[in-house]
Automatic annotation (TrEMBL):
It is a multi-pass membrane protein. The gene is LOC102808511. It is found in: Membrane. This is Neuromedin-U receptor 2-like. It comes from the Eukaryota. The keyword Hydrolase does not apply.
Length: 337
């Protein structure tokens, strides 16, 4: 967990530095990735800090007394808000790529950085609303008194936990957490499938050297976003499954489809996967896109790698589907403040 925390903060902060340092990286797509980056920093900072604080201050795993009266609301509320912001952002940039590739001229007229910032602000407001049931539930504090056997003198006699005893509120919180995840997964998979089909067709149409170069750059970004979104759902699925599984068990103390013998381990590994999700994105950007690698080199070493990025706005007037898509892609990639 400390390693994940350090990597998450360093790598995501490095990406934010690159966007601030390199003007041509301030594109609409990267605005969404910056929003995702901020959410990842918040999530991993509060999620891992919560576990480390509890580990250092109490020998009892469920002891949350270190957080105090409002600590549970703050810690778990921010974690939920960051999760929902990440989820909504993945959907937004998938929709943005879908519109850009499928309806390039319409996207060119509609797309703007102001509109993007408004949508990003909406993701945060919506995330706060979605996190309210969980925050209300975590506002309940329960005190337990223990008498430990000999040899456990260092264990606390008083243990505090925060969770809701209201069954309806618990079901609501889990539903609000899992249902948007499932709906978003369906939307992202369908839109990415359409995008892939469209790209395969366009790759056969591209003719000029400029079109081939533009298609290559565009396709690298599309593949990068595709991998980012798919890994997001893969890495978070085990935890979402663990959250909803007990709800379908007739035994109130049951663990649903997950055997009780491995449920605890499942939860722990699911948490680690969620932390990896908050670490891995900057690595994906550099591994899959030459444009992002050049930007990182320029930001940290003050020099270009390979060809210099140019803010060219001259395009062919061919009106094929492929060229119209390339036109919007180059505009969306090169526009900056």
């Amino acid at each position: 967990m400390p390693i994940a925390l350090a990597l998450g903060i360093v790598l995501n902060s490095a990406f934010l530095f690159v966007i601030a340092r390199v003007p041509y990286m301030r594109t609409i797509t990267n605005y969404y990735l910056v929003n995702l980056c901020i959410a990842d920093i918040l999530y991993i900072s509060f999620a891992v800090s919560d576990k480390l604080l509890r580990y250092e201050t109490s020998a009892v795993a469920i002891d949350q007394s270190i957080h105090g009266e409002i600590g549970c609301i703050v810690f778990y509320g921010i974690m939920d808000i960051a999760y929902f912001v990440s989820l909504f952002t993945v959907v937004l940039y998938t929709v943005e790529r879908f519109v850009a590739i499928t309806f390039p001229f319409r996207a060119q007229m509609m797309s703007s950085k102001k509109r993007t910032l408004i949508l990003i602000a909406i993701t945060w407001l919506t995330a706060i609303v979605f996190a309210i049931p969980s925050m209300v539930g975590n506002s309940e504090r329960h005190v337990m008194h223990f008498i430990w056997p000999p040899g456990y003198d260092s264990f606390p006699e008083v243990v505090e936990t925060c969770y809701t005893t209201n069954g309806d509120l618990a079901y609501l919180a889990v539903g609000i957490n899992v249902i948007p995840f499932c709906l978003s997964l369906v939307i992202v998979v369908i839109l990415n499938a359409i995008i892939c089909i469209k790209i395969l067709r366009e790759n056969k149409i591209g003719e000029s050297a400029r079109s081939k170069s533009s298609l290559t750059a565009r396709n690298q970004v599309v593949r990068m976003l595709f991998v980012t979104s798919i890994l997001f759902f893969i890495l978070l699925f085990p935890f979402e499954f663990a959250s909803i599984s007990p709800l379908f068990d007739p035994d109130p103390a049951g663990t649903g489809a997950i055997p009780v013998e491995i449920f605890g381990a499942w939860i722990q590994y699911s948490r680690v996967l969620s932390y990896i999700n908050s670490v891995i994105n900057p690595i994906i950007y550099n591994a899959m896109s030459a444009r992002y690698r050049r930007a990182f080199i320029r930001a940290f070493f003050c020099r270009e790698a390979g060809k210099t990025e140019k803010k060219s706005t001259s395009y062919t007037t061919r009106t094929t589907t492929a060229d119209s898509s390339v036109l919007y892609t180059q505009i969306s990639l090169n526009k900056s403040k």
